[in-house]
Amino acid sequence: MKNILVLHGPNLNMLGIREPGVYGNTGLPAINEKLQKLADKLSFTLDIFQSNHEGELIDRIHGAFGVKDGILINPGAFTHYSYAIRDALSAVSLPIVEVHLSNIHKRESFRHVSVTAPVVIGQIAGFGPYSYELGLLALHEHLQSPA
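== 3-dehydroquinate dehydratase ==
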């Protein structure tokens, strides 16, 4: 079984409450439940963590080194300015997929830049909660392909 770290960044604990016109009505527990069901089908184990604190996310990323097989991350607002999270992702040398509920490229101009995108294998944005499932499927496909 492959072991995947799932990270939800700041304010994602408020999904379903915060700007439902942008982020939808689905709360984080429902997203995690769907991810877990998909992970079971893919023979993945998930370690799911949400934090509003940059250092806690970095500690989890560092802790994945040599232990996890990949990372699925929605860095939230840290996407656009956290070089510390970018460097942590780069340091662990794991396959990483970045996901976003909204299409960050159709939103405010400051959201168009992802400082984390250059160190991940791919980015999925704009499919609401399904972005997470697509990200997990992409990570599965990547881990199945010959090195």
